[in-house]
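Lab notes, practical 5.
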Amino acid sequence: YAPPLGKRCVIFVDDLNMPAKERYGAQPPIELLRQWMDHQGWFDLDSKEFKVIEMIQFVAAMGPPGGGRNDITGRYLRHFVQVYSTPYSSDSLNRIFVSIVEWFFMNNDFPKSITHHKETLVVSTIEVYERITKELLPTPKKSHYTYNLRDVSKVFQGLAKATTQSLATENDLMKLWIHECQRVFQDRLINTQDRDYFNDLMKKMLSQHFKREWDQVVSLEPILFGSFVPMTVPDGDGEKQVHDIYHELYDREELKAKVQEYLDDYNSVHKTPMNLVLFMTAIEHMVKIIRVITSPYANALLVGVGGSGRKSLTSLATFMADYLLYEVEITKGFGIQEWKEGLRKLMFQAGLDNKPTVFLFSDTQISHGFFLEDINNILNTGEVPNLMEPEDQQKIYETLQAEVGEIKKRTPIPSEVYGHFADRCAANLHVVLCLSPIGEDFRTRLRQFPSLVNCCTIDWFLAWPEEALRSVADEFLSTVDLEDSYRTGIVDICVDMQERVTNLADRYLKEMRRYYYVTPTSYLELINTFKTLLGRKRDEVNKNIKRYESGLEKLLKTAEQVDGMKKYLEELVPQLEVSQKKTKELMVDLQEKQKEADVQKQQTKVEETEATSKAEEAASIEAECKEALDKIMPMYNEALAALKVLKKDDIIEIKKLGNPPQGVKLVMKALVFMLEVDPKKYVKIKKEDGMGTEIGYFETAQKTFLLDSKMLDTLKKYDRDNISPEVIKKVAPFIDDPAFDPKMIEKASKAAHGLCKWVRAMVAYDSAIKVLQPKKDALAAAKATAKSAQETLATKQKELQAVLDHIASLTKRFEEAEAEKVNLENRVQECEMQI
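Output from the prediction step:
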């Protein structure tokens, strides 16, 4: 494995001695690099194959051991040509930076009164750098008190923001120089003692090199420079405002108004508005943040406890600079893939879209250690190694190919396009880190990731001064309904409590060597707790006041009601007496009517018992009749069924018989008797022995009813209930005659069989009806008696119901009267109790 043909690869390893030593004193990353030095390759972890890599060369850099840096084993150092880089001498530094300042002054046509201070600016700045490096040494608590030439260059970078309009006089130049030195060197100092030392140092430098006293130059502190407030410059006889001029912000009221205007604009366009109190300390920090993010390749490290306003001020400063703000949203399950996806989105926004972007990241978002490792790479080189996938690199090449081609005047190769993309990211991307100094994590992170200090402008948020505490208390208490004198006193108490607790925390640290952090969040909680308690107590007092007022009102109202009740009671007593008398009379009448009703009810009960007895007797007789009928009706119905089977042709067939069987003759004879044929119509025939004549019943039938076409209907409608005894007497012998048996007759003629069954059924029915008729007569008599009894009972019940209705009417009237009496008694009693 080797670089492309004709190329050599140089691998630069920075901070070589940063890896921590493991348990036995070895440094695994160093040992891994040494493997190539000794064996020219590494093992592939997947294939377990040793891969030789040629045509590469290592260049490494490191600082002297100490301050988190370790000694490097001699087995590794022997492979290097060691070159020790000693610090630049003062003369060398002077020559470098004087050349830079001279070039800047010449290109911007500054007057001679300004340009003749070029050596003074450089000498003073380098002396400040050397003094502070020697006198403010890093300690475990001040591990970031490390300075390098980048800090010196940041001072002159800030000076280069000025124009001839903003540096009109020598004092303007001196104030700008003081401002830039303070931003670079003083803002990282962690307490007022160190900051006072730096101010004294600046005063000495001003007197020693510029031959001016502090009071002659500085009339307003703190010194602030910015370009977001328009600068007023002379314009003929008048004045005009010029924008985007880096000048001193000496008009503090105008500064506050401008920042408040930006804050109002921010809140109007964002879904989550910020309720910020813009006291002077907060504005000062915001000016510092704007200075950093608007400087080329600049990043910021904001150090402060929770609630100090780091993120809010950064959001507002980004909005004022018209930059885009990017924050990583840490969610549950947020891992390396989500982190890399967020970084790719950030890089595309800065590199492809070419939009100035502020990447805001706080220590509360550090859920994995590699987050800061990638941020350290962004601070140091402007990119994250191995971040872009092949498809991402293709997207970068396709997007920027034309632009890089115009610059190169040829078709660029992918490495050139990606280099242009990385340069864009470094130019447009500004990282703002918000870390808390509480605990060991802060010092550990600064030691493990040196770029957090070397590549960032540090702004250490000190405790809020008294002016800030008062401004915050005034703002939060402005919505509370208080008299001005009370509000002022409460603000004084809140400020005094915060300062006292802060002093006690310092004393606690000195005496007990333990930390207790008093944060701005604690102060805000104090004010909100007071507002909550005040609101709660006011609600309680107002509630009690309302109760007392309501009680007094009810007492007055009750007195009026008592007078009215007395008059009302006087009216109720006569009404009660009348009601009691009326109720008594109704009670007597009701009792008398109840006695009459009881007598009549008894009589009705006797009638009801008698009617029930009669009805039961009739029902019993009716059941006996039904039982008797049930016995004979099947035979009768069977006879009718036999008739229904017969047809007219069957009758004609019997009629035409010349010599009918004996059974047919018997049936015809029985029918002659049943149909009561007139004897005058009887037909005489000769006897079989030829001796005399006899009645021919078959022939009689042929001459009489067999001629009737409706003969079958006559039989069906035969009056079975009124058969004469003579007919029964004549027909009865046939019933016992074996020859008249239906089965015997059926053999002779089917038609005669049906007629035979009919005759037998009529005789049987007559026999049964003679037994049943007395019961029918008894049933009719019983039903008549029961009907009469029911009619009598209905009359009695009607009379009784009339009496009961009358009693019910009286009862209702009595109950109404009683209810009225009770109501009057209750009203009288209630009225007496109320009185």
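Observations recorded by the TA: The chain has a mean pLDDT of 84. Residues 520-645 form the longest helix (126 residues).
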